[in-house]
Amino acid sequence: MRKRLAKTDRRTEILNEARMLIATRGYAATEMEDIRLACQLSRGGLYHHFGSKRAVLDALVEEEVMGLAKVLKEAVVWPIAVLLDFGASHLGNDPGIVADLSSDEERLEYLSSLEVAFDRYLSGLLSEKMQAHILPSFDAAHVAELFLTVNMHINRRQIMGDWNEGQAAGFAATSLQALEPFLKDPTQLHAIVIELQKVSVS
């Protein structure tokens, strides 16, 4: 008999199975029926949690961003360094589910999901974490929003194939240098910029 799980546990199980299927088959070849069978659920049981494959993608992207937000919340060091150290694929981090997307349409769906998740889980938290590092004449929320907007642009250009990792890293380095006038201690950026510049010319 199928074990009855709490709603949150069942949702986690569905997402874990979906993630494994997508990693094995790719997003395009994974259907809701495949996820249902892997979880041994009725159709009603699956659709009670997720109404479509896009909803599954939204939730998988949300999980990735929530993981990044958790690291940022617990960190006591320079917040932008934390986000880059744990989230930047051009610095060698796992790109996550985006690596299993094959068409421009799928990548655009991913970017849309990512933008929503950034706004929901990272924007306010980054603003709060940046407060101690921004000169009092500037609004930390504006600087955080500027960073996330530039980051989304880099993501879009790289994910859609317009830039390779070196080009993304080069633009990221330039963008970080542009933040220096807002910072109490601009030297906090120097090590990150140097690392990105190395990637940009490799």
Distance between the termini: 56 Å
Mean pLDDT figure: 91
Give the fraction of residues assigned to helices.
Answer: 55-70%
Radius of gyration, rounded? 19 Å
What is the helix tally? 9
Low-confidence stretches: none
**Structural class by secondary-structure content:** mainly alpha
Q: What is the element string, with H for helices and E for strands? A: HHHHHHHHH
β-sheet strand percentage: under 5%
Q: What is the fold's blueprint, element by element?
A:
Layout lengths: L6 H19 L6 H8 L3 H7 L3 H22 L4 H9 L16 H27 L9 H20 L5 H14 L11 H12 L1
Structure overview:
By secondary structure, this protein is mainly α. It has helices spanning 7-25, 32-39, 43-49, 53-74, 79-87, 104-130, 140-159, 165-178, 190-201. The mean pLDDT is 91.
